[in-house]
């Protein structure tokens, strides 16, 4: 590899880290990082695996080596599939849990597309109601992946199949003044959680019953320790669980993937709250309240459940430690301001590495903004907060609101207005 691009990148990263401790600058490194086109030799990975097998290398160092190899591979990522099936912007997406080339996408008009971009077959398309039907949350049913859950501005949270049938309506507001903004599901505890536009959060069994909280005397009502212990049996026999947990709209709900009675809720009331579902008695029974300077678009647990990533509506990402909620978070300045006619930008985790992926909406008022800054997809290290790479395609230069890697971690789906973009490593697509 030529030395000049590497030294240029190192100097840029060094400048980025100067004068910062737990606060990091996300200035544009596209020019420097894009020049790193040659992946490292795979022999280093083979050597690391061999040393780990011999007991000479710890798992964290091996994981770091694999992550570094993946970061170098991003230089060869290109958009190889595009689709624009909707007459309104795309608002949500979800990867199929077991088919790495299949995803579902929802739109502002309530349309839903199931797309296997590895096949030439026509995608499955479910027509929505149009205006007022925006799909705000979309999850495959982990117990039957031919089905999916949605929350919508139509005022419902429901279970559907890809033939267009509604199998169950979990919640229905019955009025256009109230709608549901987010949802998450747990296969282990068979729970569905959804939040609405006035601050309510509802927890239900997958059979449609509202989950009720546990008696204080229950042996399962003791505080959860970290690392996570075994999942509780949530009893359906006690107090109804439908509470106003925030003062304003609940923009995001997330169950911890390793400890799924831990719930994070994000709101435009400028807070993220952490709840123990076994301990909820009312709006003040949260474990922790994490105040923010601006309304919050999303709060996502890392795949190992040990960190929480939040995205505000202005210019800040935060990374909290799930074992130290009171400890100051890592702050990552990043431009992604809110705009009414733009699908809210939400940062997500890579499913296998400690990496954060988020779309950039350049802001002239952002302190490190440069002239003609590109609308890139930015990749940050989740531990250091440093910018590691920026993806960009000059033919798809719009604002990219949603980005999510498939469960294998080798293919990225992005939402850019009306368009769905699929990124993958160029060499991988050329293989037979």
Automatic annotation (TrEMBL):
Cited SMART domains: WD40
SUPFAM superfamilies assigned: WD40 repeat-like
Main location: nucleus
Location relative to the cell: Nucleus
Record's protein name: DNA damage-binding protein 2
Record Pfam families: WD40
Keywords from the named record: DNA damage, DNA repair, DNA-binding, Nucleus, Repeat, Ubl conjugation pathway, WD repeat
């Amino acid at each position: 590899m030529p030395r000049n691009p590497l030294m240029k990148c190192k100097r840029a990263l060094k400048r980025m880290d100067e004068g910062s401790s737990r606060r990091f600058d996300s200035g544009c490194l596209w020019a420097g990082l894009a020049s790193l086109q040659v992946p490292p030799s795979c022999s280093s990975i083979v050597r690391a695996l061999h040393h780990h097998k011999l007991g000479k290398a710890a798992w964290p160092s091996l994981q770091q080596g694999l992550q570094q190899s993946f970061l170098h591979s991003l230089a060869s990522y290109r958009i190889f599939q595009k689709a624009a099936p909707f007459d309104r912007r795309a608002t949500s997406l979800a990867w199929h849990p077991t088919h790495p080339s299949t995803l579902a996408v929802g739109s502002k008009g309530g349309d839903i597309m199931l797309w296997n971009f590895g096949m030439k077959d026509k995608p499955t398309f479910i027509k929505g109601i149009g205006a007022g039907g925006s799909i705000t949350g979309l999850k495959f049913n982990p117990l039957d992946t031919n089905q999916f859950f949605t929350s919508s501005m139509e005022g419902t949270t429901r279970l559907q199949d890809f033939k267009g049938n509604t199998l169950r309506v979990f919640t229905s507001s019955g009025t256009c003044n109230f709608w549901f903004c987010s949802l998450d599901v747990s296969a282990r505890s068979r729970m569905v959680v959804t939040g609405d536009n006035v601050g309510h959060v509802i927890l239900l069994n997958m059979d449609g019953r509202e989950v009720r909280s546990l008696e204080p005397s229950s042996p399962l009502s003791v505080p959860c320790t970290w690392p996570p212990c075994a999942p509780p049996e949530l009893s359906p026999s006690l107090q109804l669980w439908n509470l106003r947990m925030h003062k304003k709209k609940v923009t995001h709900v997330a169950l911890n993937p390793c400890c799924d009675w831990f719930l994070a809720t994000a709101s435009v009331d400028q807070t993220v709250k952490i709840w123990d579902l076994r301990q909820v008695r009312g709006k003040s029974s949260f474990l922790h309240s994490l105040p923010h300077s601006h309304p919050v678009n999303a709060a996502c647990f890392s795949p190992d459940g040990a960190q929480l990533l939040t995205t505000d509506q202005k210019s800040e990402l935060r990374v909290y430690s799930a074992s130290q909620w009171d400890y100051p978070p890592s702050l990552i300045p990043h431009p992604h301001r809110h705009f009414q006619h733009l699908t809210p930008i939400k940062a997500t985790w890579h499913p296998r590495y400690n990496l954060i992926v988020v779309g950039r909406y350049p802001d002239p008022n952002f302190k490190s903004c440069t002239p003609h800054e590109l609308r890139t997809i930015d990749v940050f290290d989740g531990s250091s907060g440093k910018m590691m790479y920026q993806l960009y395609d000059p033919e798809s230069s719009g604002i990219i609101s949603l980005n999510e890697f498939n469960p294998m971690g080798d293919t990225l789906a992005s939402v850019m207005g009306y368009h769905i973009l699929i990124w993958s490593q160029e060499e991988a697509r050329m293989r037979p």
